[in-house]
Each structure stands twice: as structure tokens, then as C-alpha cells.
């Protein structure tokens, strides 16, 4: 069974949105528990439940409180070392992709050994395809060609 592509936009229907919220909440909490168990890391998840008007803390309030206290006690530099804005994340991603593209380009040049690639070869100059405009005597009209001039009507 294949999965459908999910459209990431606000679900307009309240009942569908609430159903999706509860389903995804269960999935998120399951993943948090798996991460804690399999990797032996401290995981704390805090979610504000808009349907019940309350905070939901996983695995419990004490663990979440202790995690936030540990974070608050860290020096500012250590606390914000891995934090970044969306813009910073995007710029880093662009830089990495540009570096990968550069490496691929260099590999292609090495593989071609400077031959076989037309990207650096001089290209011929193509003459104008409309001979009627080339034979025009006098000053050239700078206006663009009309569609009817480019493709005259075909008469049977």
C-alpha cells in the first residue's frame, strides 16, 4: 500500500484537523520514546494542546522541568551553539549544495579531460533566419516582428 503525498497546509475542516492532530501527536510521542530508548538520550517534548487548553509534557513534568533547568544553566555560547534561524539554515544549505555542485563540476571536467565537452567550445554564430529582414534597405525598424510576419497565413 502506497502513501499519498501530504499537502502541508492548514487543514480547514475542524474535525479532520483534530483527528490529524491526535494521530500525529501519538506518532511524535512514539518517536520521542524510541529516540530515548534506542539512543539513551534525554528527550523532553512540550506541546500546547489547543483543543484542551493545556500543556502536554512528555515523558512527565519533572523530566521536562529538569531538562529546561539544564539548558538554562548552560553558558550562553554553549546553549546557542547549534541554534540558528530559518534564514541561517537556508544559507548553510545553499552553501553545502553549491559546494557539492562545484565538486561534481570538477569531476566532470577531470573525466572529460578537457575534451568531449561542448560547454567550453566556441559556438558558431547563427545568421538571422528571416532573409526578408536582412535584405531590407534603409534604417532597421526596432519594433519586434509581428506574429503574422513570422508565420504568414497559409492559403490552400
CATH superfamily of the domain at 14-79: Transcription factor, MADS-box
- The CATH class designation of the domain at 14-79 is Alpha Beta
Percent range of helical residues? 40-55%
Strand coverage percent:
5-15%
Query: Biggest sheet: strands side by side, in what order?
Result: 1-2
- DSSP summary, beta strand count: 2
Structural class: mainly alpha
Q: Supply the number of helical segments.
A: 6
How would you characterize the largest beta sheet?
Answer: 2 strands, antiparallel
Taking pLDDT < 50 over at least 5 consecutive residues as the criterion, the unreliable ranges are 130-134
Rg calc? 31 Å
- Rounded mean pLDDT score: 78
Find the CATH topology of the domain at 14-79. Answer: SRF-like
Order of helices and strands: HEEHHHHH
Report how far apart the termini are: 57 Å
Shape: extended
CATH architecture classification of the domain at 14-79: 3-Layer(aba) Sandwich
Subcellular location: Nucleus
GO molecular function, one term: protein dimerization activity
InterPro entries: MADS-box/MEF2_TF, SRF-like_MADS-box, TF_MADSbox, TF_MADSbox_sf
Keywords: DNA-binding, Nucleus, Transcription, Transcription regulation
Amino acid at each position: 500500500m502506497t502513501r499519498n503525498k501530504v499537502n502541508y497546509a492548514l487543514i480547514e475542516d475542524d474535525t479532520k484537523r483534530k483527528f490529524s492532530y491526535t494521530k500525529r501527536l501519538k506518532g511524535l510521542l512514539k518517536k520521542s520514546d524510541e529516540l530515548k530508548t534506542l539512543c539513551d538520550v534525554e528527550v523532553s517534548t512540550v506541546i500546547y494542546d489547543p483543543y484542551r487548553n493545556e500543556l502536554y509534557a512528555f515523558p512527565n513534568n519533572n523530566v521536562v522541568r529538569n531538562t529546561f533547568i539544564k539548558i538554562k544553566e548552560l553558558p550562553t555560547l554553549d546553549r546557542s551553539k547549534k541554534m540558528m534561524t530559518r534564514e541561517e539554515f537556508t544559507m548553510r544549505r545553499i552553501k553545502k549544495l553549491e559546494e557539492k555542485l562545484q565538486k561534481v563540476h570538477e569531476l566532470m571536467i577531470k573525466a572529460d579531460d578537457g575534451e568531449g565537452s561542448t560547454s567550453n567550445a566556441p559556438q558558431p554564430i547563427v545568421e538571422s533566419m528571416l532573409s526578408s529582414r536582412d535584405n531590407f534597405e534603409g534604417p532597421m525598424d526596432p519594433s519586434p516582428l509581428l506574429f503574422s510576419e513570422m508565420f504568414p497565413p497559409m492559403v490552400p
